[in-house]
Automatic annotation (TrEMBL):
Span list, region Disordered: 1-109
Bias type Basic and acidic residues, positions: 87-106
Signal peptide range in chain numbering: none
Biased composition (Low complexity): 10-23, 73-83
Name this polypeptide is given: C2H2-type domain-containing protein
Domain called C2H2-type: residue spans: 767-790
Record-linked InterPro entries: DUF3435 (IPR021842), Znf_C2H2_type (IPR013087)
TM spans (from-to): none
């Protein structure tokens, strides 16, 4: 018996008895095997004695090993097959020698039983489920509810449950379902029914345990066009920088809807970040699929720092890093993306300035900077190349862009709550109408245009990383429909006019700021008198009279009854139908304007009138001086850092101001005067770069008692008002808003109840009248005080 000693790289010695002839033959066949750093010994069974057949079998194994190892011998950097096997066994914690010993000996019963139990468990579990995202699961679960409703209709006749129908996998049943789906829903596009069919196939996979048969999928997909739905595709528009500036101009100059200043600054910053990073809105704000989760860009994802200037080593510049964490499919394979932004020369496009203003508004700095100038004056230590500006620890996980709640007293910043996607989109769409775009604007148009510019400037790998898509997906969904290239020059070889072609390809080419933004009185009357609304109002009145006849006065006492539920459902249908009709009527009015404006322009010019006299714009008017200052600087390059600091300071002040809401019942009369700064100019006008005169509205300061309201003239705010007013609104807003009459007691009482939902009125508070400082506690105490002291009855 020959005993082999332990070789390097082996875990134990192996003893083997092999016949001499067989051993020599084996060595002869295996002589060309290259030496390895860590050889795996060949194990031969000591019994039974070797036979010719076993001998040939052994030699055959050596031949196969030789063929598999030989190609590796030419690669000096790669280890041999024996190395790989030994390393993998060592890394995985599996003892190959123990396994070979187990081949000779029966494994312990306990281990075999454990393995058999695991096999039975996996057999019971069945095929692994697809790893769908939470949003995808929500979609097919919602579709499963429609499927169950459809199957319950059939169950009385067929006796088959929804699950049984899925297991049968009858294409005819699925086709009838899609017909039923079309009948009971407002489905107009074939792409929508395709999506519903895809969700049903996912639901099938979840219930049955395996994917639907390919022949069934193909059969239904080939049949779907027979439904006769619209197969046209929406034009893929892109919003390039010129159109983005039109949106920003609408936000700061043209928009007449009162907004909190914090909303305007945040919307401006969000638009710039969306355009520069080509990111989805859900990476910056709380998406609709994550509603209530507060998942959005946080302070820990934004960092400000001073770095040395590349042009002047003695100076430092401010930059910002933004790390987008909440990317699509983050749980599966999504990776975060980090971007760096520098100070921009144009105020409209300076992302860092907006980030600084928002940070000061939220008092987010760890070092407690009191002015913007202090940050710009910071120097980098000689031994360092960066000076990072830290946030407060308690704000690191808080959203950077926070929501602003609308109250009867104006907007209120909800610092712990993320800015919602629906509000971002709603304001963006409205700004598109204000800017006069003919087509409806969408946030993805920014992403598409940014992706197009990135595609031109960077290689496809960087584009795919930024967009978070493969090349195939980008080319299919993000390539604009209008190919902005001079094909005429390409073919004929004439001088290229690429810039002209690009300007024509802009989606804002046909925009007109004179287009209607909202419905006029006549159009609103048409909506109110629509036959569909009249029918719904009659239905609502029937339910209301039935509730009254049963003694439910007021109607809220009927809560919990089926009659009241029907009444509430009808009220909701009236609201949704009214909103739908308004949208359709406004869309029709906008389209009518754009269809006729060219003919109007041509007709007037042919009649001898110059183009400048046709449909001129009204002069913009601002309530807040800070907004007017930002609007004036929108396209003026910064002269120096002092001008930039003043701009950031103005943005910060604007973040704390609220534009006065205007009553819907009647329009305010504006008492407008010119800006005192402009009065020093020779022409007396305050002209912004767009050529429009900016005028300011004179209104009472919206200050608190501590800021001087107590010194308000008594003749403006008499202790007993000449007519019923809201004694809580009297503490804020313009003078006309403070003293607006509310003659009906029931309306005034409802208005007061809304006020008292505010947390500041839950405890003790002072009377808001400028000439009264009595302490009040609760709504009852307030109403008694209003009647006894101010003569206002609720």
């Amino acid at each position: 018996m020959a005993q082999r000693g332990r070789k390097p790289g082996t875990s134990s010695a192996v003893t083997a008895t092999v016949p001499t002839a067989a051993t020599h033959r084996t060595k002869r066949r295996c002589r060309n095997i290259p030496p390895t750093s860590s050889a795996v010994p060949v194990r031969e069974s000591p019994s039974p004695p070797a036979t010719p057949s076993s001998d040939y079998g052994l030699s055959s194994v050596c031949d196969e090993d030789l063929e598999s190892v030989a190609p590796l011998s030419s690669d000096t950097d790669a280890g041999s097959a024996a190395d790989a096997e030994t390393d993998s066994s060592r890394d995985s914690g599996i003892d190959l020698h123990g396994e070979c010993e187990g081949e000779r000996d029966t494994p312990p019963a306990s281990e075999a039983d454990a393995i058999l139990k695991r096999i039975a468990y996996h057999q019971k579990q069945g095929p692994a489920k697809p790893r769908h995202s939470d949003k995808t699961k929500e979609l097919w679960k919602a579709e499963s509810e429609f499927w169950e409703s459809y199957c319950l209709v059939l169950q009385k006749e067929t006796g088959l449950s929804p699950e049984d129908q899925l297991h049968r996998c009858d294409p005819a049943v699925f086709k009838a379902y899609l017909e039923w789906r079309k009948k009971h829903a407002r489905i107009k596009k074939e792409s929508a029914i395709d999506a519903y069919w895809k969700r049903i196939s996912m639901y099938y996979d979840h219930v049955v345990g395996h994917a639907m048969a390919n022949k069934v999928l193909k059969d239904v997909r080939r049949w779907i066009p027979e439904l006769g739905l619209d197969r046209s595709k929406k034009e893929k528009l892109a919003m390039y920088v010129q159109d983005l500036f039109a949106i920003l101009h609408a936000l700061w100059v043209d928009d007449k809807k009162p907004l909190h200043g914090f909303i305007r600054v945040q919307i401006s910053a969000l638009l710039l970040l969306s355009a520069a990073t080509a990111t989805r809105p859900g990476a910056l704000v709380e998406s609709a699929s994550n509603k209530g989760s507060n998942k959005a860009l946080c302070f820990k994802d934004v960092s400000l720092m001073k770095v040395p200037s590349l042009t002047d080593p003695n100076r430092s510049v401010l930059v910002a890093n933004v790390n987008l964490v909440h990317v699509k499919n983050k749980e599966r394979d999504g990776t975060s993306k980090k971007f760096t932004f520098h100070l921009e020369g144009l105020p409209a496009y300076c992302i860092v300035s907006h980030l600084l203003a928002i940070s000061f508004r939220q008092d987010a700095f760890h070092d407690g900077f009191s002015t913007v100038q202090q940050i710009f004056d910071l120097k980098i230590p000689a031994q360092r190349e960066v000076l990072r500006i830290r946030w407060k620890e308690d704000l690191l996980d808080k959203p950077f862009f926070c929501n602003v709640q609308s109250t009867v007293e104006g907007g209120r910043a909800l610092l712990p709550m993320a800015f919602p996607y629906w509000k971002y989109r709603e304001i963006f769409v409205r700004l598109g109408r204000v800017a006069g775009f003919e087509e409806n604007v969408e946030l993805y148009q920014l992403r598409r245009a940014s992706g197009d510019r990135i595609n031109e400037a960077l290689p496809s790998t960087s584009r795919n990383q930024t967009m978070g898509h493969s090349s195939e997906t980008y080319e299919r969904y993000y390539t604009p429909t209008h190919i902005a290239r001079d094909f005429q020059s390409i073919y004929f070889g004439t001088p290229s006019q690429e810039d002209l072609i690009r300007s024509v390809a802009r989606m804002g080419l046909s925009r007109d700021r004179r287009a209607p933004v909202e419905l006029d009185d006549k159009q609103q009357e048409e909506v109110r008198n629509h036959p569909l609304l009249a029918e719904l109002r009659e239905e609502r009145d029937v339910y209301k009279h039935k509730l009254y006849s049963q003694g439910f006065r007021p109607l809220v006492q009927g809560q919990g009854t089926s009659l009241y539920a029907d009444y509430e459902s009808t009220v909701r249908r009236i609201g949704s139908t009214t909103e739908k009709l308004r949208r359709e009527r406004l869309k029709e009015a906008i389209q009518t304007f754009h269809d006729s404006i060219d003919a109007i322009e041509i007709e007037k010019q042919l009649s001898g009138k110059p183009a400048t006299e046709i449909l001129t714009l009204s002069t913009p008017e601002f309530e807040l001086r800070e907004r007017a200052t930002v609007a004036n600087m929108l396209s003026k390059p910064f002269k120096d850092d002092r001008a930039r600091v003043r701009h950031i300071h103005t943005l910060t002040r604007l973040c704390r101001l609220q534009e006065t809401p205007r009553p819907k019942a009647r329009k305010r009369k504006l008492d407008c005067v010119e800006d005192p700064v402009s009065s020093s100019k020779a022409d007396g006008d305050f002209t912004n770069p767009t050529g429009l005169k900016i005028r300011f509205e004179r209104c009472e300061p919206t200050a608190s008692k501590d800021e001087g309201d107590a010194d308000a003239p008594s003749h403006l705010y008499p202790m007993i008002p000449p007519h019923p007013v809201c004694l809580l609104c009297i503490g804020q807003g313009s003078y006309e808003w403070r003293m607006r009459p509310i003659p009906r007691k029931d309306v005034l009482k409802k208005h007061i109840k809304v006020h008292f939902k505010d947390p500041q009125y839950q405890g003790e508070f002072e009377c808001r009248h400028p000439s009264c400082s009595e302490k009040l506690d609760g709504m009852g105490h307030f109403m008694r005080h209003a009647l006894d002291v101010h003569g206002v009855c609720h």
